[in-house]
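Pinned message: reference record for Cupin
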Amino acid sequence: MTPQEMEARIVRYGDLRPCRTAFIDAHTPGSNQKENFTIIGGGVSESADQHVHITETPGFNIGAAGQPPKCRNSLHSHRTAEVFFVLSGRWRFFWGRWGKAGEVVLEQGDIFNIPTGIFRGFENIGTDYGMIMAILGGDDAGGGVIWAPQVIEDAKDHGLVLGENGKLYDTKKGQALPEGVKPMPLLTDDELKAFPEPTTADVIPGYVARYWDLMALADRQPAKVIGPEGRLKDRPGFGVDFITRGSIPANRYSVASHEVLMPVRGHWRLSWDGGNTALNPGDTAAVPPGLPHSLTPAMTGEASMYRVRSTDDPAGPTWTGA
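Predicted structure (tokens):
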């Protein structure tokens, strides 16, 4: 593989193109300053304005959300996995029908496999612009977002209407629902009863892994984060490992699955038969199956990254709690 071919499979942090109208709450005060990024695959964006950096999906999607302080993402649910790790900033994740069933605060490098089928939201509670990276299960990311009813109602007051076709229409731009397309119906009371309300104690032990715990676990070999043998035991259609300076594979290796490399801290060098390149925090590299490659930290000091691999597991629901 030539350097040019590999570079086409790497999305650099500095090249990320944000969409500010990706979802129905894009005009709602408190959420109207967020930026969404679709890095690998189309994700669950509802807007035609979203730029997709790499369209080919490896069995999952990679995206990101960037938000200034006090900006929040509104309550919604997914049918397949949604996994976040904090690239920068300090974030509060909350869940439940009204966002009051439970919450957790995550710092840089922490990872959260949010249970499927519950309403969840998040906000930047830090002092600077923050970024969280996302892994979404399935090639089509579960067919979109399910919004809490109040989110759809609030959005209508600020000019955005979601059609039953899953597409967003901005009345401020003169857009209207096409003929024959009805607004997305609100969930009924009976439908809402099917959404679990797990507490903080229900969720944190099996769905949250802290950066410094993973650093300790990965001092000699990669730490398994998500998977049957992982710290977070799950089969969401992909597996996640955590790699540090002390746990990088000793030799060049290749795997039969797709592999996505996402540095958290430090500077890395990715080498393969045909070239090498630097990877930095916020970069996303999609290594194709069967390509022999190696990783080395490019400088002294702390270095860590998440490694995501496709698996044969179906990208279905992950919440099995009460």
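Pinned by admin. Summary line: The mean pLDDT is 92.
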